[in-house]
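Example for reference:
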Amino acid sequence: MTAAIEHSELKTDDEPSPLLTVRDLLLLRIAVGSATRADLQRDVAPLLASKISGLEFRRSAELALSTLAGAQLVSEAKGGRLTATDKGRQVAEASFAASRTFPATWSDAKTSLVLAALAASDTPSIRKGLARPEGLAALIVQRHFGKTTGRVLSPADLRSELAIIALERAFGNKIKTGFGKSAGLPAKAGRLLAGQLFRSPREISTDGKLVIQLACEIVSAREGSLAALELALLRTLLAQKEENARAETSRPPQQRAEPPKRPPVRTPPPLPANDRLPLDETQPPPAPRVVSPPDMQEFCQAVVDAARPVAEGWPGNRKAFISLVWKAIRNARPDWGLSEIAFKGMLAEAHRSGRLELATADLKDGRDLKSLEDSKILYKNTVWHFVRVQD
């Protein structure tokens, strides 16, 4: 147990961040300044509040403090103030070997833990980003989606990166075209695509709100404030299951929670020899649907095939509403697993690469306004409504 404490390390490279126990947090808090049990309750307990109750924390803390004292890492004065020994200070300093200096305050210690959770370097620019909710949210999103955390991306740059990720997922990583600031999707279309990365896809009005709301979902933060994001991120570093198990075994037998009793299994009554089971019990369950996103060539060919029967106009200028094409694709190719937003984003990319041709409507023509509204795709300050069919 002591060896586990002494070998605890916080790394800031690309390796997964280590999980901290209650003992690790208590030792760090005591090492950055002596503390009473009330200080530990105030500073450390909130990191575990969503997972264990205050009573469970106090039990785990007392068990951890006794372990630290037995390992001669902390000492307790008569007034109840806890201080790290020289050995305990060395163990705590080893945890921050990747930081520039050992933190002088608990606030600095939490910043170092945040850097470890993000696998980010301890540089002035990164620390400046951590002081803003937008900067911290950007680093959370960059870390989650495998982007470098060497610098804080702007909301616009990060939105472009997220749109690419969403588009690649829609195509099953079969898309080969690249996006730059000049050749990429416009802001609104990019946000529509990036909104597909939420558990429940949604449309966000600005790039800043997109990054913050996505970060809140990633770390399960209740709001997008700096304090809420920091607290939720720190909670991802904690591994309290081991401590809870030890706290449970330390309770008196009469206080331990009993495992839930299983209800008795009833034997079904025998069926008559001439009885038949219902059809739904004799038939095997349906096989799960396998989602296989299309590549660009397959997608464009299917769009043209779906647009041709519903296109209107004269030969050489036949056009089909995008909304009608989407309905045909949705019904004909459920195996692609596309949403409407992803479908329109793929249409915009096909138009940008010259594989398909989209057309805009004359808004003075008041016919079928609902189809016009359902079909619109915003692309480079132009609104497209039709897929053009080449006869």
